[in-house]
Amino acid sequence: MARTRLYRDGSLAEEDFPVRDISRCLEDPSTTVWLDLYRPDRAEFTAVGEELGLHELALEDALHEGQRAKLDNYRTHHFLSVYAVAVDPDGVGLTMSELAVILTPQALITVRKDAAFALDELVARWDRTPALAAHGVAFLLHGLLDHVVDGHFAAVRQLDERIEELDALLFAEGGRQIQTVQRQSYALRKSLVRLRRVVLPMREVVNALMRLDLDVVDGPLMPYYRDVYDHVLRAGEWTESLRDLVASVMETNLSVQANRMNLIMKKVTSWAAIIAVPTAITGFYGQNLPYPGFAHQSGFIVSSAVIVVASLTLYFVFKNGDWL
């Protein structure tokens, strides 16, 4: 599956033309080509690479999954590996889409490893800023990075909102949400660790692309790339703060659980002390030896009165001491 676009002199001239026509299109120095491939066949992709003069290591990295977010520079082109991120419907898990990007002076080649990447949203972003299309590959790359980084920022925001919901559950009445908070806090921490591995390397990638010696970004587009870089920094800092916040939520949840356990133990101990009074008295009066009031109604009345008075005394003492 392939998708193509041709820009000529800053205007969209052609779309979805055959891949075999790319070399012909690039003969005109005023053209810029975008080629998107979804899980390309190795032989076909190698043929495209040979036609465009791409390095074999760039081709290999583009086909293999699990690359870290990075920027590799070659003599005639550059290779980028980035990840688009989306939060799952449960508000806790993450879905990541790996995207390999190859930059040449006139072409942007994207290789998608899965179908989750929102390609139509990326194309719509390009179409919303046609005035920048005259900057060629730098324009296409900016739209791509802006789309990816905005996804990172949106994911961090959604995770932050989910953590705030957990904060409300921490002190819910009855303590029935302890297991839910514990389970979701752990899942959120795992998601934030995964997100951090994607967001932090993007700082180096975007910063390196803005280097003048790479000749990727021209002067008019530099403010746009700086804006993307600012979003990358904010997303990274936000992710770090959320990791600390989730750790605090997990520790607070354990503290709340321990406090509730102490409260339960206090109540159980108090009731055990109250129950021990009638047990001790009835046990004393139930022995087979003569005792004061033995075989008399007065003995039963006295023992019953002692049980009631002692039990009520302990109850009010524990109640005033906030043990019950």
From TrEMBL:
Stretches that traverse the bilayer: 268-286, 298-318
Gene Ontology terms: cellular component? plasma membrane
User: Major place of localization?
Assistant: membrane
Membrane topology note:
Multi-pass membrane protein
Cellular localization per UniProt: Cell membrane
- What InterPro entries does this protein map onto? CorA_cytoplasmic_dom, CorA_TM1_TM2, MgTranspt_CorA/ZnTranspt_ZntB
Name this polypeptide is given: Magnesium and cobalt transporter CorA
Q: Which family does it belong to?
A: Belongs to the CorA metal ion transporter (MIT) (TC 1.A.35) family.
Q: Which UniProt keywords apply?
A: Cell membrane, Membrane, Transmembrane, Transmembrane helix, Transport
In the UniProt record, does the keyword tRNA-binding occur?
no
> Which GO MF terms are attached to this record?
cobalt ion binding; cobalt ion transmembrane transporter activity; magnesium ion binding; magnesium ion transmembrane transporter activity
